[in-house]
Amino acid sequence: MTNKQFGPTGWTPDLLEPLAGKTYVITGANGGAGFEASRLLLSKGARVVMMNRSVEKSEAAISRLKTEFGPATDVSFVRMDLAVLASVREAASELLAQTPKIDALICNAAIAQVARQEITVDGFESQLGVNHFGHFLLCGLLFDRIEQSNGRIIVVGSNAYKMGLKRIRFEDSNFDTQYTAWNAYAQSKLAQMMFAYELQRRIAAYGRSVRVQVCHPGASRTNLLNDTASPLNKIIWAILSRLIAQSAEKGAWPEVMCATRDGLGEPRLYGPTRRAQTVGPVDACPLDACALDQQQAAQLWSLSEAATGLHWKV
Ligand SMILES: NC(=O)c1ccc[n+]([C@@H]2O[C@H](COP(=O)([O-])OP(=O)(O)OC[C@H]3O[C@@H](n4cnc5c(N)ncnc54)[C@H](OP(=O)(O)O)[C@@H]3O)[C@@H](O)[C@H]2O)c1
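A: This is the predicted complex of the input protein with NAP.
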């Protein structure tokens, strides 16, 4: 399960081939790992379409990228709020109308460690709603276009998947009782990963051709806790991240690798491999069995279809 493919230095952007003619769609790319992934892909001549919730931040990010790579750089954005299913549907239609080819959809956006329970307009605990249900719907709506492009789906997970309850709380997935920021975030990242491995199995069973890869950025200095975490967690992370975390750019390497590299395995989890998979060479990481629970994954798929109204027969 943890066979290394890339030797002692792991995968690095030096291994990237030219990407002219390729189109990458990335959620939550105005900052953090998503922005750095966009930079790397653009540096090799790819087209990047960001799917972001903030117009202002998107325009600022695009302006920075055009300053760095030149005004003709092919980077744009579609406005999408993953917390609102109607927005995901609208954004998917807009994207499909303007993007004939999707070489990879990178499900990167997330919120984390939301201090108190928040419920989305569609009625979901906010981390489960944004991180999982929003992406489930987006993946389903873009799936055929990705398949026609011989493309792939990348799900950005987190080591948190194995640090919470290690299961989906089907009896109370919104944490109406016993809400904790950590357990609700961990559930949402486990849900994303369980979904990805279930999608791999369904694609194999039904003879579809989309590849699905799962990765995580380790511990990276991004904006992840800035808006959502409790003041105490923000202080702890501000100190800890200086000591234990790597740059946002390195945090982007696993998702860029998964989006571009052929010959990756399934089911696998790719990310930094040292110090409890927080930093270090990017390669295959140990994968806890909780992400591969097929009974829970099937139940989660049904829940996700009911929650999003998308009847997705892969
Ligand atoms: N940083 C780490 O140490 C770490 C560790 C484990 C896993 N991860 C994972 O890495 C991925 C990237 O996160 P990051 O660390 O780069 O954090 P980040 O800097 O906070 O980036 C997250 C992105 O998601 C976007 N986003 C949040 N809510 C959204 C919504 N409702 N609709 C659309 N976009 C939304 C944010 O947009 P706004 O700017 O508008 O908020 C931002 O662009 C996430 O999946 C996260 O779970 C990170």
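The longest strand covers residues 279-285. The CA atoms of residues 34 and 182 lie 22 Å apart.
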